[in-house]
Design a protein that fits this description.
about 120 residues; mainly alpha
């Protein structure tokens, strides 16, 4: 995580783009499979699913847009996405680094923590 957090801006942006492509492609695939298997679903449900598939297909093809994750600001640019990713990865790496000590402490405290 720290390696990616400190990678070049271009590497972090490309990693985000790859991740978003995977997420959108996977969602499209799963929804299309659902559409194929449910013949008795209401037409409005089928139309909604098709609209979601189309929206995700547009996102999949929109390579020029900044690879923004949902919780990031709408107006963030690609460099801002890289900075946000770096900060989030550092936070996650810190949590992973301290997790064993927190786990040991919880084990030592045992029932006291449940009271």
């Amino acid at each position: 995580m720290r390696d990616l957090a400190h990678a070049s801006v271009n590497d972090r942006v490309e990693n985000l783009r790859e991740y978003r492509r995977f997420v959108h492609a996977d969602l499209i695939d799963r929804l299309q499979r659902q559409l194929e298997t449910v013949n008795l679903a209401p037409l409005y449900w089928q139309a909604d699913v098709r609209a979601i598939v189309k929206a995700n297909a547009r996102e999949l093809l929109a390579s020029e847009a900044a690879p923004r994750l949902a919780e990031w600001p709408q107006d963030i640019d690609a460099a801002g996405c890289a900075r946000a990713l770096g900060a989030e990865l550092e936070t996650m790496a810190d949590a992973c680094e301290h997790w064993p000590a927190l786990w040991r402490y919880a084990q030592e405290q045992g029932e006291k923590l449940l009271a």
